[in-house]
Design a protein that fits this description.
Elements lengths: L5 E2 L9 H8 L3 E6 L2 E13 L27 E6 L3 E8 L6 E12 L1 H8 L11 H8 L15 E5 L7 E4 L13 E4 L7
Helix pairs in contact: 2-3
The structure holds a DNA duplex (12 and 12 nucleotides).
DNA sequence: TGAATGATCACG
DNA sequence: GTGATCATTCAT
């Protein structure tokens, strides 16, 4: 047992990216930085495929930035967006595929005080209701890029909770492939972005 | 609605 | 080298 559940291993990610994205909703994401654990329940994800997905960083050829996406499943992919914010992803499928799932939002459950401080907010729903808010709250940055899940103080836990109302729809903030319903989230959840 | 803010990528 | 773009957030 780990934080009230079972640690999610790398093999969880070596299958269909869309299934992984859906199955991650309801799991728990934690980060242990500086000896302090914080995190919460994953309430929103998005899938980015290696092929036939023009919105994905891996849609074009392999480059220095997206190389991590082509690594083994379970690898952490972090990148800087808009020069300001970080986004946190987990690599899926098999090595060389270039697919990943973006974790977009958490319902905070542990280390609230620390996350509020990092986010400079007093509102729980403002802690991790967005991909860059989440990385701020968990103190995730490019230092975690390319690391294996569970190896750098970042891990996912399955507490056996089932979510009966997972909805899907178009991804947020992209300009290409808006027709693909690759976003998964808990319906009517106020912690969704 | 738009500013902040900088790495990345395609081009040539 | 240069310029457009970008899986966001926050203040106006």
């Amino acid at each position: 047992m780990k934080d009230g559940g079972k640690l999610v291993e790398a093999n969880f990610f070596s299958r269909s990216t869309l299934k992984v994205a859906e199955d991650l909703v309801g799991k728990y994401l934690f980060s242990k930085k500086g000896g302090r654990v914080c995190g919460g329940k994953i309430v929103e994800t998005e899938a980015y495929l290696g092929k036939n997905d023009r919105a994905s960083h891996a849609a074009r050829k392999k480059t220095a930035r997206n190389a991590v996406m082509f690594g083994p499943p379970g690898t952490i992919y972090v990148y800087l967006i808009y020069g300001i914010h970080y986004c946190f992803n987990l690599v899926c499928e098999s090595e060389g595929e270039g697919a990943a799932v973006l974790i977009r939002a958490l319902k905070p459950s542990r280390g609230l005080k620390l996350m509020k401080k990092r986010r400079k907010t007093g509102e729980v729903k403002e802690i991790a209701s967005g991909p860059a808010k989440l990385t701020q709250a968990l103190s995730i940055d490019t230092d975690d890029n390319g690391k294996e899940l569970s190896s750098n103080g970042i891990y996912v836990v399955d507490r056996g909770e089932t979510v009966d109302s997972i909805a899907c729809g178009p991804r947020i903030g992209i300009t290409k492939s808006k027709d693909l319903d690759y976003r998964f989230f808990i319906e009517d959840n106020c912690y969704v972005s």
